[in-house]
From TrEMBL, chains A, B:
InterPro entries: Cupin_2, PKS_Associated_Protein, RmlC-like_jellyroll, RmlC_Cupin_sf. Residues 38-93 form the Cupin type-2 domain. SUPFAM superfamilies: RmlC-like cupins. It comes from Chitinophaga agrisoli. This is Cupin domain-containing protein. It holds the Pfam family Cupin_2.
Amino acid sequence: MITNINIREKYDKITEYWTPKIIGELNGQHVKLAKVKGDFLWHSHDNEDELFIVYKGTLYIEFRDKTVTVPEGQLIIVPKGVEHRPYTNGEEVWIMLLEPKEILHTGNVIDEKTVTNLEWI
Amino acid sequence: MITNINIREKYDKITEYWTPKIIGELNGQHVKLAKVKGDFLWHSHDNEDELFIVYKGTLYIEFRDKTVTVPEGQLIIVPKGVEHRPYTNGEEVWIMLLEPKEILHTGNVIDEKTVTNLEWI
């Protein structure tokens, strides 16, 4: 069904950190929302570029040669193959992600943070 | 170069209506921003789904069987092949678009609103 999607209402349904939820699908990709807080793991995606849009708070993404600060209202695209580690400065941060459907959010790394069956909300 | 992109600052560079500007690229798709006002034309995209995120104002999308209202903070995905006509209620509306690079924003229709060489900002 073609309908409008209220991003804020979708965020209200998210209760876990670092667990992206799917809100839409287009051209073989998922639009996902996540609440994140604290540290994530170093990883990369061999074949997929990844888009992060920050809706609330400030996201930091550490690369091997620098750290990029992405405040609310900004976005960043991480090209395939580039090692990165998202984290927040202790605050809860709301992000929108866009990436191919088959991707694992932890990329080339499987650990306790890896969620393999993403849910729609 | 991997860097943060300030969405608001990009909008400030847009001076024409219905003329999407590219701000990013991932997985063969462009992330685009546009300011729109008034009526657009009926069209569809044979092979590409299209994502609209509304950043300011209220976007309306007319379909053959209904009209969907998409206010600020909401998004809509128009599946490939579905005829649609975006418009605004006279106000200036700011949208983000995500669609494959090779797409024409007027889809299967070429008219005076068609912009064939989209610019990066």
